[in-house]
Amino acid sequence: MSSSNRRLAGQPLSAALMLALTALLCFPLARAHCQTEKCPGELRFAAIGEKVPAFGGLFVDESKDTLYAYMVPNQAGESATLDQTITEILGSGRPTVQRFEVLPAQYTYQQLGDWKSRLTPTVLAMPGAVFTAIDDPNNRLRIGVEDLSLGPAVEAALATLSIPFERSEEH
User: Fold this and answer.
1) Distance from first CA to last CA of the chain, Å, rounded?
2) Which end of the chain is less crowded, N or C, counting CB atoms within 10 A of the terminal residue's CB?
3) pLDDT score, position 30
């Protein structure tokens, strides 16, 4: 989520599979097209996940000069293969940092992408739902809403779609 997003009320509620129901006033227009089609970044990450099934997403921590990649334990794939695949698929778009570190993931990127594709039409049909997104730094999905009172309806939709979730407070 970008820092240009503004919260309207209270502390955000997060439901993990992780859906974070974040009260937002607006979100970047670039994300809007990603609600009906996969964003270019999502397509590249999905391609990484096809080659390394354990892949669960990646993010950069510039303060540590590190590219972090998630891998689900006991899934097919090795960190050296993942590192090479990231370079092959991202090419010159690969972040230029000195370190590469693998973190344990709960979900594969393929799972997150599938769940996002399934939940987006249902959730965005709800008045007040603003966006759905894969939250790469947290290996989760996010749902943006204008009002946190939409939480129970979103949770019911997740249950209907058999998408796992758990509640946790986000600050």
Assistant:
1) 14
2) C
3) 36
